[in-house]
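Backbone-to-sequence.
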């Protein structure tokens, strides 16, 4: 099983649900599964994804005439969320493309 970081199989099996939830509501696993490296990794990836989506929204409000471009960007965020969820389901700790290497929380 390929992982960017290492954690136990037990941690993965017990916290898959939290890891999946991290791509929808990143703050719940961030607060509720503090002892799980697996859930924390995915929560931090979910935070990166949330901030990307927020940045896209803010730019779309400031410069509204690029509507089609924002729709494509939103599809990109959705694709990254699906990618993260698939990694969580498969027990992988693999960073998201483009934004996964950004460290906001240690």
């Amino acid at each position: 099983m390929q992982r960017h970081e290492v954690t136990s199989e037990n941690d993965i099996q017990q916290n898959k649900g939290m890891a999946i939830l991290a791509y929808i509501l990143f703050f719940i696993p961030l607060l509720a599964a503090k002892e799980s490296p697996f859930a924390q990794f995915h929560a931090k990836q979910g935070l990166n994804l949330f901030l990307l989506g927020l940045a896209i929204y803010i730019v779309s409000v400031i410069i509204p005439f690029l509507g089609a471009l924002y729709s494509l960007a939103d599809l990109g965020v959705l694709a990254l969320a699906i990618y993260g969820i698939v990694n969580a389901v498969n027990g992988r700790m693999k960073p998201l493309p483009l934004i996964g290497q950004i460290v906001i929380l240690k």
